[in-house]
Amino acid sequence: MKPKWQVWANEAKAEFPKANSALLPLLHRIQTEEGYLSENTINDVAELLQLPVPYVESVVSFYSLYFQKPVGKRVIHVCVGLSCALNGSDQLMHHLEGKLGIQEGQTTQDGEVTLLEAECLAACDLAPVAQVNLRFVAPVESADALLAKEVNS
Amino acid sequence: MIRLTIDDREITVPEGTMIVDAAAQLGIDVPIYCYHQALGPLGACRICLVQVEKMPKLVTGCTTAVQEGMVVHTRGAAVDKGRKGVLEFLLINHPLDCPVCDKGGECFLQDYTFQYGAPAGRYDEPKIHKLKDAPINDFIIIDQERCVLCQRCVRFMGEYVGEEQLLLEGRGVDTVVATVSHQPMDSQFSGNVIDLCPVGALLSIPYRYKARPWNLEREESVCPHCPVGCTTSVTSREGHVIRVEGRPVAGRNWGWLCDRGRFGYDFGYVEKRLLNALVEGREMSAAESTRTVGRWLDAALTDRGPESVAFLVGGQQTMEEAYQVARFSQEVLPGSRTAMVRTVEGYLPSGLNGSFQDIERADVVVYIGGDPYDAVPVVHLKVRERQRANPGLKVMGVGAYELTRDFHGAKNFTVKPQHQAAFLAYALAQAGTKSQAVEHLASQLGTYVPSLLNPVTPEEIQALGRTLLESEHLVLLWDGKEPEMESVLLALRAAREDATEVLPTFGPSNWRGWERAGIPAHFASLQTIIDDAAQGKISVLFVVGADLLRDYPDREQARRALERVDHVVQVGLFLPEEVQLYHAVVPGAGWSEVYGTYTNMEGRMQVAMATVQPPGQARPLRTYLNSWAHALKKSFVLESEWDPFDDDSGDFVPRESLPELRPVTVPEPSPGTPPGSLRVVGFSLVMEGGMPSEILAPRVPRFPGRISPQDAARLGFSEQGGELQLEGTMGKISVMVAPDRRIPDGILALPYGIHGSPLNQLGEGASVKAVRLEEVSLG
Amino acid sequence: MSQGPYLLRNQVIADIDQIDVYEANQGYQPLRKALKEYDPKALVEMVKASGLRGRGGAGFPTGMKWSFLPNDGRPRYLVVNSDEAEPGTFKDRELIEKNPHQLIEGMIISSYATGAREAYVYCRGEFLYGAAQLKRAVAEAYQHGYLGENILDSGFSLDIKVYRGAGAYICGEESALLESLEGKRGNPRLKPPFPAVAGLYGMPTVVNNVETICNLPPLVENGPEWYRTMGTEKSPGLKVMSVSGHVNRPGNYEIPLSTPLRSLIEDYAGGIKGGRQVKAIIPGGSSVPVLTADKLDTPVDYEAILAAGSMLGSGGCIVIDDQTCMVAVSARLVRFYREESCGKCTPCREGTFWMTDVLERMEAGAGNPRDLDLIRDMADNIAGKCFCPLGDASLGVVVSAMKYFEDEFEAHVTEHSCPMGARLYDTVNH
Ligand SMILES: Cc1cc2nc3c(=O)[nH]c(=O)nc-3n(C[C@H](O)[C@H](O)[C@H](O)COP(=O)(O)O)c2cc1C
Ligand code: SF4
Ligand code: FES
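^ thats the input. predicted complex w/ FE2/S2 (inorganic) cluster below
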């Protein structure tokens, strides 16, 4: 457990009438820094917020944006929602898989990039849409353009 | 009350009743998976669809409360189609491996599919694969592929028991039930999830592949291990008990069991089970032994008279057997004495004895001396259930350490051993009541001022007194350790207008029943016999279904007694400790082998059927009694049916009128415990004491002793604990201890009857020198 | 009719996300007016009179929802639903990213009207930027005295907190949202009790969509009569429509309700790409039935679209051209619901899983003629039998597409290929 987590936990708790509400914000904050939420981190968070470990574990496993396994420095979400699909997102995904040499759901060997599907990202006007570490990159012109700008620069 | 019609039949039920429960009252079976009355509605599985007139869609009968004039149809084309659909969905990812599933034949997925499902499957796609056959502790295996995600197990452990050891992991079709961090669950109540699971996802490991439902027999029974007397069903196959399940009794209990009760059924078959008679070191048939014992008895009668014969009845016997002993003593050997083997000295007059229904109505529950979780586990669930229904419930503890666990807002008064009766008397006296009974108590206290082991203000003590006197429905759970408590409880009852009910948490499980059968229950009766024996006044001593050295509070005195008796005869299931002190040990029959009645801590009589034959030469007690009488050439006819039930009190043993108030003994100011020493406090722990079980062996705590974390640190132990050598005035033992934050400094809590570390070698309340032997690490 | 834009002023005023720009354009004037000229009850009456209906999907009259709050002295909460995850819907994102003060002002007015002293915005986890924009704007609003104690000397106090979910469409459903806001798994709650009675932390709670609340400032400024000059009797006012798919100018368009669908697609969104024809329109987000090209003259309002066989829903209008395979479209959308099913109830969890498999197999050419009846029957076994509306939502497109484009579905299972020749799908799995 890092000392500042205690501070973050207190900040999060202070913001809400019930400690439970602090859980999602605290997990976000810690994951942003740690990359993912290990079993130890989950135990720490449970302790910080005085919640049962299984409760925290169960919550974490419910949400798709919490990672329980290590991810790459850049997490690329490619939207595969209908509007994006109508505008070529499947091909985009294919190309990215090819260029990165990994399948959707995997992380490159060098730990740089994790490639994930996203359900509709509510930016259909910009299809096809991607997010890099939850920052919108849209419309994506091509896999090459995306990688050149977001990964190789 | 609400009136409605279900399948053209009218019924009136209380407001808030769910449709499925109202239907059940009419005998109409609406299928359910996720719903359980004790857990409340969830609405997850959707199998309970019914049609309600004027509602546009089918509704789930488990989440829809009845309404005046409602017209419900539990069958019909739409309902049947809906159910069929749900069942088909439940089966698409199910492995359909019924032939190798222990639940087969007892499975609600099979049964409902048979009743309501489609004749053939339409699912051709690949199934999702999940974890199969994964143990979640030593007793339970999970098959996530068979799981229908009804959440009963998860909700039971988390919401009901309050030990969140199961969780839902993942989302959508990938959701699974799992343990915390994939570690084994260690709750005392884990086994209930097997009963709760409507399908074959959570199965018993000891029962695994032992039988198909059609080649087994099920009988109604009662758990014999502790005074709760939970109702059970015993499954046997080919003369062996192979499973125990909880048996719900409508309106009274949900059929929860603790793991001791559920899995500790193998004591009949353990290696220690006595199969032959052993007379003066020689194995012989049971029949042969009766002649020898008869000779001893005959000699005792002629030489020293019947006063020199005594019977001690212990933990394993039914009321009927106790009655037989009492009759034998009175009719065959008039003048002989009987007593029951006790571990603690207290007595509770039956007039004070409350029932579990009192817990259901309580607004204050006080634990005195011990934690029910350890001694009478299922009572812990009853108190929790009460707190669910009444969040304002106050739970308090008065004992040598913190007794309440995980109850919201619980309050503890940590009082030195042997001071608890005086402390409660003091608290009552402080509350400023005009009650004569309390004034009488107070007058006995002299200058006594309590000193507690945890920080408590005088106001809090006063408030405790007032709560005790003024609460509306007061329930006390008493561990029976301090005999003086009886007078405090009587005074409290006399001073209060409202319900004051006491539930004794002490054993032996069936003591109230034996008392009803005519065996004296006061400790003094036992003590006199033991003292007389130690003085050589007893010629033949029968110990029936007990292990005297293990159970009697003063092991040395018990040993001296046995040494001085001419002939000690033991009837029981196992060899007693220090068997060389016994002249004859004859194999008895026990629970599940004889029909009989058990009386629980409520004073409620419950019948347990016999399911199997006693093994080897083991015989029911009556056989021995008859043949001993025969050997004495006395006619002794045991009626085959003694009916302990009483017309006026029904299931309960009749309550006697309350005895006179007696003075309490004010504790001597205890000499300051010398530095480095600990004061011993005994407690009963169902997991540790009682009958042996190989199934339960992995769960018997490795560190039965508990000390404060500070003491543990002082003794140089880590969080795991280690082994201590203890030395008191009465003797020496070594014991494994672990730190427990509920224990105050200077206290050592030790369960009664631990094999190899007998607390009665030290004495309750003794101050002992503690020397660290070694640190033990849990691999 | 409309002098607009009212809700999407960000499209014509640069930097309106900055408080000074917002203020310079009459921002926070409606708030002053509301606090000064109205008591809470009058505001609720005004919203009722305007006929404003919830823009989150169900179209429930907002004023009526507010009046359900019990008057029992317990604290109340306003929760704004910015979980926006319904495929094809992206209006709330623009509203919070580009004009956050408008939402905040709406929230203050709504809280004043409903008696809430604390209000939350629940943003979906992916709205990292939107949430940051809101947080920044909330801080500005505090600095300018629009939030906190005794706002503008009115005696009314309010705190606003911005909360981020963590990736789960189901958290858009109001009770699941509240669970999530309480730090739990986003499983929907049993109803009743409804949020108005027992919502956040068990207290009376109003849950409204972002766009709904954004209507408050213009409504207070211009009055309910003005609002009723647009739209129809039952569907008055303005609606932001998100148009996407095969159109030339995808984007958010603020239209007076009852504007014809054709006008929305052609005039606003610039017509179909590449000069192709409209094949199908999903007018209200992925949960609603498709409309065919012959319904292009339908006015965009709740009743007319319902009469045409679909629903206005969240206003996420996905336009599909005539070269697109409807089996693929259906498969993609059902897959979405499979991914997003919370897993609590059987028909939704298992039904969407199975149906996805069958549709994807059909699309890949491995269907068989029994599949069509199978899908219809599965849909029947899901419909109306799930714990929350998500299960039913998964059926809107597939069931209607099978009705209007039956030939296409049949060709997939008899010819084992797509008559459109085109595959939307990556079919390597089959
Ligand atoms: C599965 C599901 C998802 C939903 N998603 C959203 C959403 O993302 N945003 C939203 O405002 N309402 C959503 N809703 C509707 C909300 O439950 C609720 O009706 C709405 O927030 C009320 O606000 P309104 O009255 O202003 O429309 C969803 C409903 C369901 C059943
Ligand atoms: S609580 Fe007691 S009676 Fe009940 S199952 Fe456990 S040991 Fe048996
Ligand atoms: S029993 Fe009713 S939904 Fe499960």
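The mean pLDDT of chain B is 94.
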